[in-house]
Amino acid sequence: MTIKKIAFLVSLTCILFVQEELLAFIPSVQLTFLLVILYGSLVGIKDGSIIVFVHTLLDNLIMGSFNIWTILPMFLGLEITLVIGYLLKNKNEFILAIGGAIACIIYSLCFFIINIFVYSIKPLEYLIADLPFTIGLIVCSVISILFLFKPLYKLCASAKDRFYETD
Amino acid sequence: MKKFIIKIMIAVILVITSGVIIYFSINPLRDPNEKDITIIVIDKNGNEIINDDYTVTDESLFEIMEENYEIEYSMSQYGAFILEIEDIKTDGMTSYIAVNINGEASPVGISSIVIEDGAIYSFVETII
Fold first, then answer.
1. Which of A40, B38, B91, B122 has its CA 20 to 30 A from that of A63?
2. How far apart are CA A92 and CA A150, in angstroms?
3. Which residues of A touch B18 (CB under 8 A)?
4. Do the chains contact at A135 and B21, CB–CB below 8 Å?
């Protein structure tokens, strides 16, 4: 891995991390799924996983939720999002938006499973309480992918051409 | 241009639909007969030993107390007279359980109290 490649991945990680912290005060409003799908399409699963892993650790450190039962579902959910982004690269933004919506549902399900089996929360009550946030997440992700994916992809792809060199 | 209009339409539909779903999931449609009440039981030392919220429909306060707590009562021509609620025990002579509605002494006995939405019913152990 070259220094330029590392610098490029660090830049992508910073963008992902900073936007999440900047938008943390508005529930469910974020560009995380847009960016993770973008990274999946742009740098692939291997390098994307490094970004997602670092982001997950940093985010939980900052937010005070640094424990395995928060890190695990978050990492798993974002990894699946990354894979969806990778599998759907070169597809139009409408298909990517559907992929983003599915990723949001899977992400919420990861937390659902942990909460049910680890914290013994009643499934129906959890689902009802989480429904508005999941819907918010889906809407925000779909709209951001529809409008921002293509321009961001063009921008990042040109940056990748300049800084990202394969070994 | 056509693609952009489709995106705008999808965005608007999503926002409106999700807004409606979120609104009704936070504020579910209510039965007009449903009433939210709070029941508080205070012992002779002023300690709150029960503070429960209920959503009720047609039950009377007496029925709610009977369904949800261990109570002892005597019946008279004026209706029920509660002597015991859970750990609070009175004899009706040297001590009794006063019933307050929103902090004011109830003008009628528990059997005649009509449930009001948002009301706080407190049962206070009172020593004579």
1. A40
2. 9
3. 135-136, 138-139
4. yes
pLDDT digits (tens, 9 = 90+) for A60-69: 999 999 999 9
What is the distance between the alpha carbons of residues B41 and B51, in angstroms, rounded to a whole number? 7
- Name the residue of chain B whose CA is nearest to A135's CA: B18
CB count in 10 Å sphere of residue A90: 7
Task: Judge contact between B123 and B41, C-beta under 8 A.
Answer: yes
Residues A148, A19: contact at Cβ < 8 Å?
Answer: no
Order of strands across the sheet that contains B79-85: B71-76, B79-85, B88-89
Q: If contacts are CB pairs under 8 Å, which of residues 70-99 in chain A contact chain B?
A: 93, 97
The residues, ordered by sequence, that sit 6+ positions from B76 with a Cβ below 8 Å of its Cβ are none
Would you say the ipTM is above 0.95?
no
The model's pTM: 0.69
